Amino acid sequence: MPGEPVIRGTTRLAGVVGWPVEHSRSPQMHNAAYAALGMDWAYVPLAVPPERLADAVRGLAALGFAGVNVTIPHKQAVAGLVDELSDAAREAGSVNTVLVREGGSLRGETTDGDGLLDALGELPGGRAVVLGAGGSARSVVAALRAAGADVAVSARRLEAAGELGVPLVAWPLREPAGLIVNATPVAQSGDAADLPLDPAALHGTAVVCDLVYRADGARTGLLAEAERRGARTVDGLAVLVGQGARSFRMFTDAEPPVDVMDAAARGSG
């Protein structure tokens, strides 16, 4: 098909590791950016079950990858499989970007938090509440704290939430906040209308961000309900583009065409 990358013996490889991974828009986004810049690169989806994750990560250098992004459910596990961690990845205990260094060593980075901040723009006043306690939630908490926000976590897994070093609030969340960020997989598949909180929490909340984006393109119930109640909303594709642009720079040392990446992620490129 027109626009698809031509893979040669000289082509540099990057990709995304997840389980499942077919929902990811990262391949479309990165390949569109490579094409726009005339780069001999290709970005591929890599479906890796948890029991094969260590083998897959160890094989990246041998297969000639420049790096990979990491998505659910592997972000925390990969942090224990790389040779070194950036300060941000170490603080979050989560990796969403693996760089293959000269000599084959692996460096774990996270662009999740800064990508979120890029997508959010100016933070609202009041408390920021993060829903969830997985790898994405860890990066979001770390980034919001670094940006000076008053952060709390609402999560079903209390033990994991307690490791994040911020106050805990009830699950499901019932009280409004300045900012609510959904870092759970609720509505990723199944019914898009499923909510990760009590709808009462959205009454009076200023900004709602849902990291979820769906393969079928449906708007999540969280964002639809938040908009109905007057909140500013930020969708998961905006965050994907924010973190993806930062990963693109790390992989290629080139400046990403963000508009191209956004259009491709949304299926309009």
How would you explain this protein's 3D organization?
The chain has helices spanning 26-37, 53-58, 75-79, 87-92, 112-120, 135-146, 158-162, 221-228, 236-252, 258-265, and strands spanning 12-18, 41-47, 65-70, 84-85, 97-100, 106-109, 128-131, 151-154, 179-182, 207-210, 232-234. A 6-stranded mixed sheet has the order 2-1-3-5-6-4. By secondary structure, it is of the alpha/beta class. The radius of gyration is 18 Å and the shape is globular. It has 2 domains: 12-110 and 238-265, Rossmann fold (3-Layer(aba) Sandwich); 117-234, 3-Layer(aba) Sandwich (Rossmann fold), CATH 3.40.50.720.
Layout of SSEs?
Blueprint: E1 12-18, H1 26-37, E2 41-47, H2 53-58, E3 65-70, H3 75-79, E4 84-85, H4 87-92, E5 97-100, E6 106-109, H5 112-120, E7 128-131, H6 135-146, E8 151-154, H7 158-162, E9 179-182, E10 207-210, H8 221-228, E11 232-234, H9 236-252, H10 258-265
Helix pairs in contact: 1-10, 5-6, 5-9, 9-10
Biggest sheet character: 6 strands, mixed
Strand content: 15-25%
Total discrete domains: 2
Alpha-carbon Rg, integer:
18 Å
Which second-level CATH architecture of the largest domain applies? 3-Layer(aba) Sandwich
Q: What strand line-up does the widest sheet have?
A: 2-1-3-5-6-4
In which range does the helix fraction lie? Answer: 25-40%
Q: Give me the number of helical elements.
A: 10
Task: Tell me the series of helices and strands, N- to C-terminal.
Answer: EHEHEHEHEEHEHEHEEHEHH
By CATH's scheme, which homologous superfamily of the largest domain applies? Leucine Dehydrogenase, chain A, domain 1
Report the principal-axis shape.
globular
Report how far apart the termini are.
14 Å
Question: How many strands in all?
Answer: 11
Question: What name is given to the CATH topology of the largest domain?
Answer: Rossmann fold
Q: Pairing-aware structural class of the strands and helices? A: alpha/beta
The CATH first-level class of the largest domain comes to Alpha Beta
Low-confidence stretches: none
Q: What does the average pLDDT come to?
A: 95
